[in-house]
């Protein structure tokens, strides 16, 4: 069973940077999976932030984070990263990573109901 654990969240000032990580474990082939990041702000629905194809060749970003966030993966380490620069207070929320086993067969999109495996989340807070 694939398990995902997020880390790297914290408190950062407006305009600052943070990198969150998603580490996968369990009996699986990591480079079969597309990985996505989602976030949920207090009182709001969870939204897709970014995703990366199974071997990292394709990425996708929400308009709100384009040119500020970068997703990457290291399949040798079973880990996906989200580098977040120029953070804004509206980026505050719990950040979740998720894995989709269809990753070998089609491009990714940060659409919530396409991902079967989810982590518990890591809190990111951006102060104004």
How many helices does DSSP assign?
Answer: 0
Strand content: over 45%
Instruction: Give the overall silhouette.
Output: globular
Question: CA-to-CA gap between the ends?
Answer: 40 Å
- Count the beta strands: 11
Mean pLDDT: 96
Parts with pLDDT < 50 across at least 5 consecutive residues: none
Structural class: mainly beta
Structure explained in plain terms:
With 128 residues, the protein is mostly beta strands. Helix content is 0%, strand content 48%. Strands 2, 4, 5, 6, 9, 10 and 11 form a 7-stranded mixed β-sheet that branches. A 4-stranded antiparallel β-sheet has the order 1-3-8-7, with no helix packed on it. β5 (47-52) and β6 (59-61) form a beta hairpin. The protein is globular, with a radius of gyration of 14 Å. The mean pLDDT is 96.
Give the secondary structure arrangement, pairings included.
Blueprint: E1 3-7, E2 10-13, E3 18-25, E4 34-40, E5 47-52, E6 59-61, E7 69-74, E8 79-84, E9 93-100, E10 117-118, E11 122-127
Parallel strand pairs: 2-11
Antiparallel strand pairs: 1-3, 3-8, 4-5, 4-9, 5-6, 7-8, 9-10, 9-11
Characteristics:
128 residues, mainly beta, four-stranded antiparallel sheet, globular
Task: Summarize the structure in short.
The protein is mainly β and 128 residues long. Helices cover 0% and strands 48% of the residues.
